[in-house]
Amino acid sequence: MRTIVCDLRGVAADCVTVDALARIHLAARRAGVDLDVRHASPELKELLVFTGLSGVLGVEPRREPEEREELLGREEERELDDPPA
């Protein structure tokens, strides 16, 4: 299958860009061609996530790891008169 590479370096993160990418993706799909989106800015990636197109276009934003308590080696606190489970 053929692939079109779409370099988004320097492209504005706005609704016009999102619309254009959606149309290009649809045209490529109808023609039986894959679309490879590269170098999207973090702002554009977030906008694509917001519009639901990030998965379709294969553009995923960088995510910070979730803050969560590390439970390894720790026991839950309990009252002294509670029987162990």
Outline of the structure:
This protein has 85 residues and is α+β, with helices and mostly antiparallel strands. It is 35% helix and 12% strand.
The protein's oligomeric status is single chain
Radius of gyration: 22 Å
What structural class is derived from the secondary structure elements? Answer: alpha+beta
**Main sheet properties:** 2 strands, parallel
Strand content: 5-15%
Looking at the structure, what is the overall shape?
elongated
Question: Count of DSSP helices?
Answer: 3
Which residue ranges are poorly predicted, with pLDDT under 50 across at least 5 consecutive positions?
none
Order of helices and strands: EHEHH
Mean pLDDT across all amino acids: 82
Strand order of the largest sheet: 1-2
User: What is the number of beta strands?
Assistant: 2
Distance separating the two termini: 58 Å
Helical content band: 25-40%
Description:
- Helix content is 35%, strand content 12%.
- It has a two-stranded parallel ribbon with strand order 1-2.
- The protein has helices at 15-30, 42-51, 54-57, and strands at 3-7, 34-38.
- The model has no long low-confidence stretch (mean pLDDT 82).
- It has a domain at 3-57.
- By secondary structure, it is of the alpha+beta class.
- Helix 1 (15-30) links the parallel strand 1 and strand 2 (34-38).
- The protein contains three helices and two strands.
